[in-house]
């Protein structure tokens, strides 16, 4: 079997469907982008909300350029800069309001520092961060997976996870979040790896799907 990490060993042992997906996909290769504070991670996530990746990256680049000499602005600097300047970088009014609320809550401690967040449980992090305007549970779950490297996160409302589950199980209908949650109990304590494999299953199915041009 491809891959012999603790994650793949456990998932293969407890779930024959996941064992087959792991054989198809290969080793578990998720590498979290550690080093960013929750404030920076969420600010970047706000930039990417509901936008194409390239457009969001351009907006984020212009935004960071507003704060010369820093790799990324600090919360107090974000609150001090003129709102119109952030708007000219490409952020909508709603996103500017979200960014400013994020900065304010980083300063008052609601949004924990990188040092503090490492000592918090997943649900405690979610509870604190969804207090920020415009930040929902899914956004925080992505932070837990891709920034903090938490091993047991299952974003049951994520379309890719649910679609990957549907594909892996050969279902016609999309599973409900509750169905994924209930089935995923067997994946503990490695539900992050299970999510990753479900995303890969969905990607593989999409890559195999013939294009409209090919059928024209």
Question: In summary, what is this structure?
Answer:
This protein has 216 residues and is mostly helical. 61% of the residues lie in helices and 0% in strands.
Total helical segments: 14
- Characterize the overall form: elongated
N/C terminus separation: 39 Å
CATH architecture of the largest domain: Orthogonal Bundle
CATH class of the largest domain: Mainly Alpha
Q: Summarize the amount of helix as a percent range.
A: 55-70%
Topology:
Elements: H1 6-14, H2 16-25, H3 38-48, H4 53-65, H5 75-80, H6 83-89, H7 93-107, H8 114-117, H9 122-129, H10 137-146, H11 159-168, H12 177-183, H13 191-208, H14 212-215
Helix pairs in contact: 1-2, 2-13, 3-7, 9-10, 11-13
What does this structure look like?
This protein is an all-alpha fold and 216 residues long. It has 14 helices and no strands. It has two domains: 6-31 and 154-208, Endonuclease Iii, domain 2 (Orthogonal Bundle); 38-146, Hypothetical protein, domain 2 (Endonuclease III, domain 1). It is 61% helix and 0% strand. Helix 2 crosses helix 13 (191-208). The longest helix is centred in the C-terminal third of the chain and has 18 residues, at 191-208.
Keyword list:
Endonuclease III, domain 1; elongated; Endonuclease Iii, domain 2; 216 residues; mainly alpha; 2 domains; 14 helices
């Amino acid at each position: 079997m491809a891959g012999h990490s603790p994650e793949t060993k456990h998932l293969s042992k407890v779930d024959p469907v996941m064992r087959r997906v792991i054989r198809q996909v290969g080793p578990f290769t998720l590498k979290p982008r550690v080093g960013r504070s929750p404030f920076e991670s969420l600010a970047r996530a706000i930039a990417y909300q509901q936008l194409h990746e390239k457009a969001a990256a351009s907006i984020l680049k212009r935004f960071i350029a507003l704060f010369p000499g820093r790799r990324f602005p600090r919360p107090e600097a974000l609150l001090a800069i003129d709102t119109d300047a952030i708007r000219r970088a490409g952020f909508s009014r709603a996103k500017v309001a979200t960014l400013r609320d994020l900065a304010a809550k980083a300063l008052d401690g609601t949004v924990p520092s990188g040092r503090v967040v490492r000592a918090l449980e997943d649900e405690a992090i979610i509870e604190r961060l969804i207090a920020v305007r415009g930040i929902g549970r899914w956004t925080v779950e992505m932070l837990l997976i891709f920034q903090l490297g938490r091993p047991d996160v299952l974003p049951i409302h994520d379309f890719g996870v649910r679609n990957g589950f549907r594909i892996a199980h050969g279902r016609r209908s999309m599973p409900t979040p509750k169905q994924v949650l209930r089935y995923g109990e067997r994946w503990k304590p490695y539900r992050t790896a299970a999510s990753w494999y479900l995303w890969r299953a969905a990607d593989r199915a999409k890559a195999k799907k013939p294009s409209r041009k090919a059928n024209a």
